[in-house]
Specification:
homodimer, alpha+beta, Mth169, Chain: A, three-stranded antiparallel β-sheet
Protein backbone atom coordinates (compact mmCIF):
# COMPACT_ATOMS: atom_id res chain seq x y z
CA UNK A 1 0.00 0.00 0.00
CA UNK A 2 1.26 3.46 -0.83
CA UNK A 3 0.46 6.70 0.97
CA UNK A 4 0.96 9.90 -0.99
CA UNK A 5 1.14 13.14 0.93
CA UNK A 6 1.20 16.53 -0.74
CA UNK A 7 2.11 19.48 1.46
CA UNK A 8 1.58 22.96 0.01
CA UNK A 9 1.82 26.44 1.50
CA UNK A 10 -1.56 27.97 2.30
CA UNK A 11 -2.76 30.40 -0.38
CA UNK A 12 -2.56 33.37 1.97
CA UNK A 13 1.08 32.66 2.85
CA UNK A 14 3.93 34.31 0.93
CA UNK A 15 5.72 31.65 -1.13
CA UNK A 16 9.16 32.99 -2.12
CA UNK A 17 10.20 29.66 -3.65
CA UNK A 18 7.12 29.74 -5.89
CA UNK A 19 7.88 33.32 -6.91
CA UNK A 20 11.46 32.36 -7.76
CA UNK A 21 10.29 29.48 -9.95
CA UNK A 22 7.76 31.75 -11.66
CA UNK A 23 10.44 34.33 -12.46
CA UNK A 24 12.79 31.61 -13.70
CA UNK A 25 10.05 30.23 -15.99
CA UNK A 26 9.49 33.72 -17.40
CA UNK A 27 13.20 34.15 -18.03
CA UNK A 28 13.25 30.80 -19.82
CA UNK A 29 10.65 32.23 -22.19
CA UNK A 30 7.55 30.60 -20.71
CA UNK A 31 5.03 33.42 -20.33
CA UNK A 32 1.90 31.44 -19.46
CA UNK A 33 2.37 30.97 -15.73
CA UNK A 34 0.05 32.99 -13.48
CA UNK A 35 1.04 31.55 -10.14
CA UNK A 36 3.42 28.89 -8.89
CA UNK A 37 3.20 27.10 -5.57
CA UNK A 38 6.04 24.92 -4.37
CA UNK A 39 5.47 22.25 -1.78
CA UNK A 40 6.62 18.84 -0.67
CA UNK A 41 5.67 15.39 -1.79
CA UNK A 42 6.03 12.29 0.37
CA UNK A 43 5.50 8.73 -0.71
CA UNK A 44 5.29 6.20 2.10
CA UNK A 45 5.21 2.48 1.42
CA UNK A 46 3.21 1.01 4.23
CA UNK A 47 1.70 -2.22 5.45
CA UNK A 48 -1.17 -3.10 7.76
CA UNK A 49 -4.77 -2.01 8.05
CA UNK A 50 -5.58 0.92 5.69
CA UNK A 51 -7.85 2.69 8.18
CA UNK A 52 -5.26 2.53 10.98
CA UNK A 53 -2.53 3.65 8.57
CA UNK A 54 -4.64 6.59 7.47
CA UNK A 55 -5.31 7.69 11.05
CA UNK A 56 -1.67 7.40 12.06
CA UNK A 57 -0.37 9.16 8.97
CA UNK A 58 -2.96 11.90 9.35
CA UNK A 59 -1.73 12.38 12.89
CA UNK A 60 1.90 12.41 11.71
CA UNK A 61 1.07 14.95 8.98
CA UNK A 62 -0.53 17.22 11.51
CA UNK A 63 2.13 16.75 14.14
CA UNK A 64 5.43 16.87 12.28
CA UNK A 65 5.30 16.38 8.52
CA UNK A 66 3.56 19.69 7.86
CA UNK A 67 3.30 22.99 9.69
CA UNK A 68 -0.48 23.44 10.01
CA UNK A 69 -0.11 27.18 10.62
CA UNK A 70 1.23 27.88 7.14
CA UNK A 71 0.73 24.64 5.21
CA UNK A 72 -2.09 22.44 3.99
CA UNK A 73 -1.70 18.74 3.40
CA UNK A 74 -3.51 16.14 1.34
CA UNK A 75 -3.23 12.46 2.19
CA UNK A 76 -4.13 9.72 -0.30
CA UNK A 77 -3.84 5.98 0.18
CA UNK A 78 -3.68 3.72 -2.84
CA UNK A 79 -2.98 0.03 -3.44
CA UNK A 80 -0.19 0.46 -5.96
CA UNK B 1 -5.52 25.29 -16.24
CA UNK B 2 -3.31 23.75 -13.58
CA UNK B 3 -0.06 21.89 -14.07
CA UNK B 4 1.00 19.58 -11.28
CA UNK B 5 4.59 18.43 -11.20
CA UNK B 6 5.87 15.79 -8.82
CA UNK B 7 9.63 15.43 -8.56
CA UNK B 8 10.98 12.41 -6.68
CA UNK B 9 14.47 10.99 -6.19
CA UNK B 10 15.17 7.97 -8.40
CA UNK B 11 14.78 4.67 -6.55
CA UNK B 12 18.50 3.88 -6.84
CA UNK B 13 19.52 7.18 -5.26
CA UNK B 14 20.12 7.46 -1.52
CA UNK B 15 17.36 9.57 0.02
CA UNK B 16 18.55 10.80 3.45
CA UNK B 17 15.47 12.99 3.89
CA UNK B 18 13.24 9.96 3.34
CA UNK B 19 15.27 7.92 5.83
CA UNK B 20 14.97 10.71 8.40
CA UNK B 21 11.18 10.85 7.97
CA UNK B 22 10.99 7.06 8.25
CA UNK B 23 12.95 7.08 11.51
CA UNK B 24 10.84 9.91 12.86
CA UNK B 25 7.65 7.99 12.03
CA UNK B 26 9.01 4.96 13.87
CA UNK B 27 9.85 7.06 16.90
CA UNK B 28 6.33 8.46 16.83
CA UNK B 29 5.08 4.90 17.19
CA UNK B 30 4.13 4.27 13.57
CA UNK B 31 5.73 0.93 12.68
CA UNK B 32 4.07 0.26 9.34
CA UNK B 33 6.35 2.24 7.02
CA UNK B 34 8.68 0.22 4.80
CA UNK B 35 10.14 3.03 2.72
CA UNK B 36 9.72 6.78 2.52
CA UNK B 37 10.60 8.95 -0.45
CA UNK B 38 10.62 12.71 -0.15
CA UNK B 39 10.30 14.91 -3.20
CA UNK B 40 8.95 18.21 -4.42
CA UNK B 41 5.54 19.22 -5.60
CA UNK B 42 4.91 22.17 -7.89
CA UNK B 43 1.54 23.57 -8.87
CA UNK B 44 1.61 26.00 -11.78
CA UNK B 45 -1.49 27.96 -12.77
CA UNK B 46 -1.15 28.50 -16.46
CA UNK B 47 -3.00 29.87 -19.47
CA UNK B 48 -2.81 29.25 -23.20
CA UNK B 49 -2.81 26.16 -25.36
CA UNK B 50 -2.53 22.94 -23.29
CA UNK B 51 -0.23 21.19 -25.77
CA UNK B 52 2.20 24.13 -25.91
CA UNK B 53 2.07 24.47 -22.13
CA UNK B 54 2.85 20.77 -21.73
CA UNK B 55 5.82 20.97 -24.08
CA UNK B 56 7.25 24.07 -22.44
CA UNK B 57 6.76 22.76 -18.91
CA UNK B 58 8.26 19.42 -19.88
CA UNK B 59 11.28 21.29 -21.17
CA UNK B 60 11.44 23.39 -17.98
CA UNK B 61 11.19 20.24 -15.81
CA UNK B 62 14.05 18.67 -17.68
CA UNK B 63 16.16 21.79 -17.79
CA UNK B 64 15.89 23.34 -14.35
CA UNK B 65 12.99 22.17 -12.18
CA UNK B 66 14.42 18.70 -11.68
CA UNK B 67 17.87 17.16 -11.82
CA UNK B 68 17.43 14.35 -14.38
CA UNK B 69 20.54 12.56 -13.14
CA UNK B 70 19.08 11.78 -9.72
CA UNK B 71 15.40 12.70 -9.99
CA UNK B 72 12.29 11.62 -11.89
CA UNK B 73 9.41 13.93 -12.61
CA UNK B 74 5.76 13.47 -13.44
CA UNK B 75 3.82 16.26 -15.17
CA UNK B 76 0.02 16.37 -15.19
CA UNK B 77 -2.19 19.03 -16.70
CA UNK B 78 -5.76 19.41 -15.48
CA UNK B 79 -8.54 21.93 -15.99
CA UNK B 80 -9.21 22.68 -12.33
Amino acid sequence: MKAKIIITPKKAVVDPQGKAVQRALEQLGYQGSEAVHVGHYLEIETTGDPETARQQLDHACHKFLSNPVIEDYRLELSDS
